């Protein structure tokens, strides 16, 4: 199968291309015009065709899609204000869908996120799965969550209108080398200091190689068409356990400041009430003072990958301990190479 992978030079995209090659596919890897291809492990592989394109513009997209059997759409804006994220995520996706329709390509694996769920409506300790409610008040969340909700609805509407063979994947917190800390673990206060809350909350981690293989497992399985899947590993550790494992392997050890989750929930609720009464809800509250944001990152829940396992041959190949050791070894190797 010939696959177009957007966002191929990104953290997850790089591994999706590698996973596709291991399964015998050929890949058309779409990267941004300014991306450095020499750092990509497959940039000289004869089964990879590299195309440079900006999804925010229509130029060249139909040619990039034409001749492919399926598209794995990973590209999204990860920074900037709402308008920058909207252009890099929603408008970019609209342009890609137009190109697919024009080129007659039907199969699409679209990347969503755990950020689309409504954590306020989930009971503490309950299991978040594909049937869990989506965010009903996106304006209370961050710009990333807002644009991912719009993007997911867009691909569903277009799939219904244009007959696309759509599968939606919602990865949890993707981790790996140079991406071992996430907002679900707290807030960085300096180079070696972190503020952490929600120590007993499970983190919906998926190691980047495991997550990449889930995408290829889905495009290889026709029964996934029309379905939505959460992607998490079997072992979703508590914050406390993960941080302990990571700190024991790092030098110098990270310094942690701990904030009580129950106290922060109360403070956030008070801040939200003040915002509504005084500012008519227009003030943009930081994570620790926003109930919606705080709960989305730290609410104690459980997670499952049962649906994905049932419908595909996928199972997380790399366990948590091995994933951490691989990631830190890769970081050390990269640091040594930079010195040399």
The whole-angstrom Rg is 20 Å
Number of DSSP strand runs: 14
Tell me roughly what share of residues is in helical segments.
25-40%
Strand content: 15-25%
| Main β-sheet description | 7 strands, parallel
Unreliable residue stretches: none
What's the shape? Answer: globular
Strand order of the largest sheet: 3-2-1-4-5-7-12
State the end-to-end distance.
40 Å
Write down the overall mean pLDDT. Answer: 92
Q: What's the total helix number?
A: 10
Q: Structural class of the secondary elements?
A: alpha/beta
Which sequence of SSEs, written as H and E, runs from N to C? EHEEHEHEEHEEEEEHEHEHHEHH
Structure description:
The chain has ten helices and 14 strands. With 340 residues, the chain is an alpha/beta fold. The strands form four sheets. The chain has a seven-stranded parallel sheet, sandwiched between helices. Strands 9-10-13 form a three-stranded mixed sheet. It has a two-stranded parallel ribbon with strand order 6-14. The radius of gyration is 20 Å and the shape is globular. 41% of the residues are buried. The mean pLDDT is 92.
Brief characterization of the structure:
This protein is an alpha/beta fold and 340 residues long. It contains ten helices and 14 strands.
């Amino acid at each position: 199968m010939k696959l177009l992978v957007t966002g191929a030079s990104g953290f997850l995209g790089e591994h999706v291309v590698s996973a596709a090659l291991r399964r015998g596919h050929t890949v058309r890897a779409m990267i941004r015009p300014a991306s450095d291809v020499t750092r990509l492990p497959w940039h000289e592989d004869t089964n990879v065709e590299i195309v440079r394109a900006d999804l925010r513009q229509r130029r060249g997209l139909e040619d990039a899609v034409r001749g492919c059997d399926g598209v794995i759409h990973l590209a999204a804006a990860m920074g900037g204000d709402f308008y920058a994220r909207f252009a890099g995520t929603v408008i970019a996706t609209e342009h890609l869908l137009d190109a697919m329709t024009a080129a007659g390509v039907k199969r699409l694996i679209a990347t969503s996120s755990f950020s689309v769920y409504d954590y306020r409506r989930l009971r503490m300790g309950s299991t978040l799965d594909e049937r869990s409610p989506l965010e009903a008040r996106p304006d209370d969340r961050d710009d990333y969550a807002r644009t991912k909700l719009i993007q997911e609805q867009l691909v569903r509407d277009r799939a219904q209108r244009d007959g696309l063979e759509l599968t939606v994947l919602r990865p949890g917190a993707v981790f790996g080398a140079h991406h071992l800390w996430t907002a679900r673990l707290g807030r960085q206060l300096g180079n070696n200091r972190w503020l952490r809350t929600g120590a007993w909350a499970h983190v919906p981690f998926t190691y980047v190689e495991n997550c990449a293989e889930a995408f290829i497992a889905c495009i290889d399985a026709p029964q996934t068409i029309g379905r939505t899947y959460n992607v998490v590993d079997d072992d979703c550790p508590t914050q406390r356990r993960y941080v302990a494992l990571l700190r024991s392997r790092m030098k110098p050890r990270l310094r942690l400041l701990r904030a009580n989750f129950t106290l922060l929930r109360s403070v956030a609720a008070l801040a939200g009430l003040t915002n509504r009464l005084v500012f008519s809800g227009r003030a943009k509250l930081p994570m620790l003072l926003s109930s919606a944001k705080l709960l989305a990152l730290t609410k104690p829940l459980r997670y499952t990958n049962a649906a994905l396992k049932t419908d595909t041959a996928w199972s997380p190949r790399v366990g948590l301990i091995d994933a951490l050791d691989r990631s830190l070894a890769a970081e050390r190797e990269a640091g040594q190479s930079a010195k040399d």
